[in-house]
Design goal:
Elements: H1 4-22, H2 29-36, H3 45-55, H4 57-71, H5 142-152, H6 158-164, E1 181-184, H7 188-194, H8 200-203, E2 212-215, H9 217-235
Antiparallel strand pairs: 1-2
Length: 244
């Protein structure tokens, strides 16, 4: 019976050989360096790209929002909600607005349905290979996939965000405990209520790192209580509504 280390060495030797056979003449150097340093080497260029962005979540977040800013929001688009199947509209304001997923604004295959920009080989965001045309089989950038998962489930990345904050509670300044939780600085119900008319690329920042913080649980509970009270007063009409 082989040991775990022997199995890993054999597996990595095969994966490296397969990866090197599949590599094009031009390939992002930082991605290749990352791939070859993994405990388990990804065996294909596409998996290497996906592994790179999963390991650089905050970088993917910044890139996805920058690509969205390059596209801008489609003419005539407004942030709306809807539960109809196939509408491309989110049913809740807790999901990031995504105009390029709506049938009326989609740019079609070869363009990312999150940021609207062209997608090239291996889900990359720039045409390193000089093809001149996007990959018609792709509808997502690998970076945007990672960013989207981060936006809709930021609590899954509490470890990354803790390190980004140097393990200090952003509210109290005290050291973060194991029970610390991810929080939106500006709550999403307030984003929907007060920022609905902001330009779409700016809206994405409310789901990304600029609006995320890790706070100790006791701080989070107190903040959630205050927000619940504000929502209750809003429902009762004690707080004036804000026009979109």
């Amino acid at each position: 019976m082989t040991s775990g280390s022997e199995w890993r060495e054999t597996r990595n030797a095969r994966s490296r050989a397969r990866l090197e056979r599949a590599l094009p003449a031009i390939f992002p150097g930082q991605v290749l360096h990352h791939a070859l340093s993994r405990p388990l080497i990804p065996p294909t260029p596409r998996l290497a790209v996906e592994s790179y962005w999963r390991a650089h979540i905050l970088r993917a977040d910044r890139l996805a929002r920058a690509l969205a800013a390059r596209s801008g929001e489609p003419e005539g688009w407004t942030w709306r909600l809807g539960a109809e199947k196939g509408s491309g509209l989110a049913a809740t304001f807790r999901m990031p607005p995504s105009p390029y997923r709506e049938p009326a604004h989609t740019r079609g295959r070869g363009h990312c349905c999150i940021c609207g920009q062209p997608v090239f080989r291996f889900g990359w965001h720039t045409d390193l290979w000089g093809a001149g045309v996007p990959n018609k089989n792709a509808a997502w950038h690998s970076a945007c996939v990672t960013a989207w998962k981060f936006w809709v489930a930021p609590s899954d990345q509490v470890k990354v965000l803790k390190a980004h904050q140097r393990h200090r509670c952003s509210a109290s300044g005290k050291r973060l405990f194991k029970t610390a939780e991810v929080d939106h600085r500006v709550p999403l119900y307030r984003v929907w209520r007060e920022h609905r008319g902001d330009p779409w690329p700016m809206l994405l920042g409310f789901w990304g790192a600029p609006n995320l913080q890790v706070v100790n649980r006791i701080v989070h509970v107190e903040k959630c209580g205050e927000e619940a009270g504000e929502r209750a007063r809003l429902r009762q009409g004690l707080i004036p509504d804000v026009e979109a």
